[in-house]
Amino acid sequence: MPKITILKPLHGAEPGLFENLASFCNQNYPSAVQIVLGVQDPRDDAIAIVKRLRAEHECCHLDLIVDATMHGLNRKVSNLIDMWRHVEYEVVVVADSDMRVDPDYLSRIIAALEHPGVGAVTCLYHGLPATGFWARLVALGINAHFLPNVIMGLGLELAQPCFGSTIAFKREALIQIGGFSGVADCLADDYVIGAALRARGYKISVSPVTIGHVCGHMSAREFWQQEVRWARTIRSVDPTGYVGSIITHAFPLALIAALIGIAALIGGWFLVRDRVTATAEEVVDHAGDVPDLAPE
To answer: Considering the entire predicted model, what is its pTM?
Structure first.
């Protein structure tokens, strides 16, 4: 099995970060693994988590890179560029900091990467709430909306995903598409990397095993910001699909239909009431016109 370098760009001590990183240390993988963890601010709270990780996993090869150099508009990609100089091995795995994996994660994705013609391997992910109500709502959206949509798109051969949850590739393949510098100004950097590899004739293999996306949203504001960022990402990579989301997002349509139904119900009630009232008044008005047929 090839030696691997894992790149983990970090920003802040998000909920569950230690457990997420520890899951990458606890891999049943028979070859050497280097984990490069990068932050851009020397005061970043994630540094304390990395120090704790080092103390509890002394046998792991963990490198912490602190570099504030910016290379474009995308801060995550700038972080990856700063970390790239410290990559030691030929096979590289990029995984977001909020991912949590099983012990056989590396073995599975490397097995897929070894297939002929495969330039990169990516993974679907399921939601794991780490905090309260808003985190559970985000996880529900991933599990009940995002994940089924992607699976259907793959089944119909309409989707060509490449997710930041995992992108495993060989260094040579990334160098051929210009490295991370080529996506330094892209919002959907993972999608663009996948598209560039496909343009070079490589296949992107989607692992049949999902990994955990730990949702740590603690407020309505964070939840809203997450939804807006996802919507902006979809709009940037697929404007037509973004417009079509009015169909796939059923809740707004159901809400509009409910409001229309309530308005029609209220309008109908007023109409019937007015009609009944008018009929009653007509009966009263004509009551005096009825002849008295009672016997004398």
So the answer is: 0.80
